[in-house]
Design goal:
The complex is a heterotrimer of chains A (76), B (152) and C (377). Chain A has helices spanning 17-27, 43-54, and strands at residues 4-8, 33-38, 57-64, 67-73. Chain A has 76 residues and is an alpha+beta fold. Chain A has one domain: Translation Initiation Factor IF3 (2-Layer Sandwich), CATH 3.30.110. Chain A is globular and about 30 Å long. Chain B is an all-alpha fold. Helix content of chain B is 82%, strand content 0%. Chain B has 7 helices and no strands. Chain B has helices at residues 3-7, 20-39, 42-63, 66-76, 78-100, 107-116, 118-151. The longest helix of chain B is centred in the C-terminal third of the chain and has 34 residues, at 118-151. Chain B starts with a helix and ends with a helix. By secondary structure, chain C is α/β, with parallel strands linked by helices. Chain C folds into 2 domains: 2-109 and 252-327, 3-Layer(bba) Sandwich (FAD/NAD(P)-binding domain); 119-248, FAD/NAD(P)-binding domain, CATH 3.50.50. Chain C has 11 helices and 22 strands. Chain C has a 6-stranded mixed β-sheet, with helices on one face. The longest helix of chain C has 21 residues, at 296-316. Chain C is globular. The chains are: A alpha+beta (76), B mainly alpha (152), C alpha/beta (377). The interface between A and C is medium-sized, with 22 and 29 residues.
Chain lengths: 76, 152, 377
């Protein structure tokens, strides 16, 4: 049963949104969707860069208020 | 007629401030700091920091010790100082006399002789008066402690 | 009012001592009791492990008796907690005792779990335990040339440790006179040389100048100790002669066993530092799930805030102030220069260039740490 998890990394410089996402991905199961919340502009490029290199799926990216909501799925 | 305007030289604009001396002093200071830094090593810094840390921790413990702080206040009083000085003087005189006196032989006769000495009577009187005040003081403290427990 | 502190590390010790000082009057009057439960009678200064690995500190300098660091009014027991019964406001310990509390502070910290990555325990060195640091030091002294690779697994405590280690390796081999025979390779999980933007901006040119090679977007999948190869999740392979791996971390087992948090990280309000769903339980230090660096400095600032808030609540019922995410990390840039990163949830200033003075500040702090945990500094 795939789950949907929220990773709240707003206003976090260290370890930073992508690191938080990777740490949560490790604990997630294949098929799970993770939604990353980030106030860091860099996440918009950083997250897809890692997702594509490692072989997971990008689901969506949208900006709501001052916060980016980046959805990814664990593919392997 | 005033001699103030006749003999006064023409007013000149003030000279710009010269900080050459101050700058040289600053440079000296910077050189001092640099030379101290050159002399220092990791180990020296660690040792200094350790002494400082332990010192600060000790100071903190001492200053928060109420007993010690109150004792310091008592020691500040001249009467206390006189008392302690008098006591220490008496102690050193006593030690000198006892050191050269022959050892006590023991037995009832020795006790009888001791009872007749003025020093013995002085000591017993001092102890007796001390005992009175000391016991009263302890009873007073106990009364305060009991009151404190029952009144809360 | 019973206050229970679980964990005798940096955060736990500071919060207990701080509370004991602020509530000295209440404690003397018997209105407040502070108890600390720890799994160890010793307190370890963890940042010293990096120096042990490079032969600059000896292991005995890392430890002090926990009891000697605590205010006398704190009831201290070396008796680790086995069960948390938060609904009943009590915990049970290894010895079978039960401790009830009005306010609980969980400061259990984090642990390394190298076994999560196949081959890591057998093939890699690290400096996150005394044993590991000593073993690494030996291997560094015996190393005569080849590739020294450093990898980073997440999450891990002390975010700047990988960067510091690279600069110390550079100076170490220079001092041994064999820097030209050693290839230093740094691998990092995200697409920058460090997760924190200002550290990444500062470190990259420093790496270039020191001749340190780096590969980003490298997440360790498994190690082949026999062939001495690292395999990444991204599908790349790297050979090494000496591998230093920053291992993955989890919260303490007791947290996971009691189902207090996924991965051992307890869900905590990042401003109030209270556990989600339990207003009388505070969580500080590595044990939280707060997106703040897992460092001693964060634990320190959090502990001071919690102590202040709990004390003012007990004395006046006033609400407390909030944690601003403050962190202060020294960053060694070699054997004799260092800079520091001081930031919070909102501000991230650029790093200043490394100087000897800041390095000495760190050397001094290695000693001043003990004054900090006592609540004096």
């Amino acid at each position: 049963m795939s789950e949907s998890k929220l990773v709240d990394a707003r206003n976090s410089f260290c370890p930073g949104p992508l690191m938080e996402l990777i740490a949560h991905m490790k604990r997630a199961s294949v098929g799970d969707t993770l939604e990353l919340l980030s106030t860091d502009q860099g996440s918009v490029e950083d997250v897809p860069a890692w997702i594509h290199k490692v072989g997971h799926e990008m689901v969506s990216t949208e900006k709501v208020g001052g916060v980016w909501h980046i959805k990814v799925r664990k593919a392997k | 007629m005033s001699n103030l305007t006749e003999n006064a030289p023409a007013a000149a604009s003030p000279a710009p401030p010269n900080y050459a001396q101050e700058l040289e002093q600053l440079a000296d200071l910077a050189l001092l700091v640099a030379s101290a830094r050159d002399a220092m090593s990791d180990e020296m810094v660690a040792r200094l920091a350790r002494s400082f840390s332990e010192g600060v921790a000790l100071l903190d413990r001492l200053t928060r010790n109420e007993g010690l702080m109150r004792l310091l206040q008592v020691l500040d009083r001249p009467e206390t100082q006189h008392l302690l000085l008098g006591f220490s003087k008496a102690l050193s005189q006593m030690s000198r006399e006892v050191a050269i006196a022959p050892p006590a032989r023991g037995g009832i006769a020795g006790i009888w002789q001791l009872v007749r000495e003025p020093g013995t009577q002085e000591a017993l009187r001092s102890l007796s008066v001390l005992g009175q005040y000391w016991s009263e003081s302890m009873r007073e403290l106990d009364r305060q402690a009991t009151q404190g427990r029952t009144s809360t | 009012m019973k206050i229970l502190v679980v964990g005798g590390g940096t955060g736990g010790t500071i919060v207990a001592n701080n509370l004991s000082r602020r509530l000295a009057r209440e404690i003397r009057a018997g209105k407040v009791v502070i108890t600390m439960l720890s799994a160890s009678e010793r307190h370890m200064y963890q940042p010293g492990l990096l120096y042990v690995a490079f032969g600059q500190m000896s292991p005995d300098e890392l430890y002090r008796d926990q009891a000697s660091l605590l205010e006398p009014s704190i009831a201290f027991h070396v008796d680790p907690v086995t069960n948390f019964d938060l609904d009943q406001n009590r915990v049970r310990t290894q010895s079978g005792s039960t401790h009830e509390y009005d306010i609980l502070v969980i400061a259990t910290g984090s642990r390394i779990v190298p076994e999560e990555i196949p081959g890591l325990a057998e093939g890699a060195e690290h400096f996150f335990t005394e044993e590991g640091a000593l073993r690494l030091h030996k291997r560094l002294m015996q190393f005569e040339g080849g590739t020294v690779a450093l990898t980073v697994s997440i999450p891990h405590k002390c975010p700047v440790a990988p960067v510091e280690a690279m600069f110390m390796l550079h100076d170490f081999f220079k001092a041994r006179g064999i820097r030209d025979k050693v290839r230093l390779r740094y691998h990092y999980p995200v697409n920058h040389v460090h997760a924190t933007a200002n550290v990444a901006r500062w470190a990259k040119p420093e790496f270039d100048e020191a001749g340190i090679e780096y590969e980003t977007l490298f997440n360790v999948k498994e190690i082949d100790p026999a062939r001495k190869v690292i395999h990444s999740e991204e599908g790349t392979e790297v050979s090494y002669d000496l591998l230093i791996a920053i291992p993955p971390h989890r919260g303490m087992e007791v947290i996971e066993q009691n189902k207090l948090g996924d991965g051992g990280w307890i869900p905590t309000d990042r401003y109030k530092l209270t556990m989600d769903g339990h207003d009388n339980v505070y969580v500080i230090g590595d044990a939280t799930n707060v997106p703040v660096s897992k460092t001693g400095s964060a634990a320190h600032y959090e502990a001071e805030l919690v102590a202040e808030n709990v004390a003012s609540f007990i004395k006046t019922g006033a609400p407390g102030r909030e944690y601003d995410g403050r962190v202060y990390c020294f960053i060694e840039a070699g054997f004799d220069r260092a800079t520091y990163n001081s930031f919070d949830y909102v501000n991230l200033p650029e790093l200043k260039r490394p100087t000897k003075s800041v390095h000495w500040f760190k050397v001094a702090y290695n000693q001043m740490y003990w004054t900090t945990v006592r609540g004096v500094l």
